Every structure is written in structure tokens, then in C-alpha cells.
Amino acid sequence: MPHAVVPAAPPRTAPCRSSSRTAGPAKPDSERGTDERAERARRQGVRVGERPRRAPRGEIMSPIEYSAEIAELLGKVRRRPTAGWPWRPGEQVPEGLPVKQSWGWLFAPDGRVLTLVNPRDGICSLPGGSLEPEDDGDPSAALARESAEEAQALIGRPYYLGYLYDRVGSANGGHECARVRMAAALRAVGPSAADPASGRHYRRLLVAPGLAVELLGWGAPGLRQARAAVATAARWLGVPAAANEAIEELPVEGCTVSPGIVYQGAVHPGGGRPRAQG
């Protein structure tokens, strides 16, 4: 099976604007069903379209602006228990340690990242998943394929960030393995559709990396991973180190996010083993 990644309908639309899911003025908290995480997120950012800024001492920053429907979705978010896998930033995966999964921080030009939310159970995730035979051992190819399947997304060239060492091997039949993390530009998304492998139909949000860590429930280790992703994206993709902190849902009909070359699944040198960039 070739590695080319094509969404169900290649997007030829204008650049992304606010989601068509906007549901008018925000409802009171009692009606919106927002929980503590959503409320805390609402108080931490900037208005849509503004650049993020640091608040002078004693000043409260203006709230993040988003639709009532996004507020309702955030109110359903629940975190998975953290696994505690050690993060190995910039280290190559040792020979003999199998790479079983590849997940990606996919960046919009304003520094926000694609974060998926399963509306049925409130679980958030980054795009990515397990390597399949058609990926030929290449984590970049797996990320491109999984991004297309889960989020109908096209991505640019992935950059290797490091790996998580899973000594329990929950993704490898009880044997130790590596879970690779990468960063790439989010080029476009096609019309929203269910993942053909799992049947999950994700909601697709653009959020600041720090807020993504909070939604994912990754804590301090996740923040270290996010910092590595932001540093790589700032260097190689030209995104700002301080992201726009507005929360936006990508249109269900799809859109272009950042025009550019689409990654087509080229295998890294060294038999598909990921290599650090720079």
C-alpha cells in the first residue's frame, strides 16, 4: 500500500476561519456544563485574532474566546491516567528497541496545534497511532497515515523530537518498546469523517500547545515534550514561540491551514529508523 496521504476530498477551500459549529452567545455555566478545566482555560488567554501577551503585574488577562459549543465540549473532557513513560528528548531510538507508535504535534502557522477530542468519552489525543505493515517501519509514514485517517489531515515533513520509553510494553505484547513523538506543519484538513479503523469521529480543535497538554492530562512531562515541539517548530517551520491562545474548531467541510509541500511518506535514512533534525 503506497504511503501517499490523501483526504477523502482534497481541500481547495479558503484558509480556515472560525468553525461553522459556532452556536451564538455563551450560555451560563449551569447550562453550558463547563467543568473546572474548561473554566480555567477560559480565563487564561486572549481574544480571537489578537496576539498573545504577558499581563503586567496585577492585571488580569482577557479570557480566551470560543463558541458555546466548544465550551460544552471542553466541559466533557476527562483525562487518562498518566503512564509515566520516561521522555527521551532528541535521543535516537536504540537499535533493538522496536518503535510501535508515532504521534505528532501538528502546527498551524500561528503556533497552535491540532488536538482531537472524542465527544463520546471526552478523551483528547494528538494525531497518531501504531505503525502498520504498510508503513515499512517508518514513524513519519505512520504519522502521515494516521493523521489522514483520524483527522483527515495533510501534513508537511515530520521532524523527530524524541521518544517515550515504554518498559511495560502495553503496545508491544508486554515487551519494551518506543513511542516516537514528531512535529510537522498542518497543511490542510478534508471533510470531517470517522476514523475507518476505530469508528471514532473526532472533533478537531486548534489550541495552544500548553493548553493541549492540560487537555491531554500529561502534566510536567507533557510540558517538557511540548517545549521540545515548539522549539523545533519555531526553528524549522517558522511558527511563533508564543502561540495564539484562542480555541478554534476546524470547519467540518475542511480547509487549507498552511499551504506548502505535503509529506508523501519518504523513508528516513537508516532503514526507516527516525533521525533527529538539526
What integer is the average pLDDT? 80
- What general outline do the C-alpha atoms trace? globular
- The value of Rg in angstroms is 18 Å
Number of separate domains: 1
Q: In percent terms, what proportion of residues is strand?
A: 15-25%
Overall SS class: alpha+beta
How would you characterize the overall build of this protein?
This protein has one domain (29-256): Alpha-Beta Complex (Nucleoside Triphosphate Pyrophosphohydrolase). Helix content is 21%, strand content 20%. The chain contains six helices and eleven strands. Strands 1, 2, 5, 6, 7, 8 and 11 form a seven-stranded mixed β-sheet that branches. Strands 4-3-9-10 form a four-stranded antiparallel β-sheet. The longest helix has 18 residues, at 219-236. The protein is globular, with a radius of gyration of 18 Å. Residues 1-14, 18-61 and 266-278 have low confidence and may be disordered.
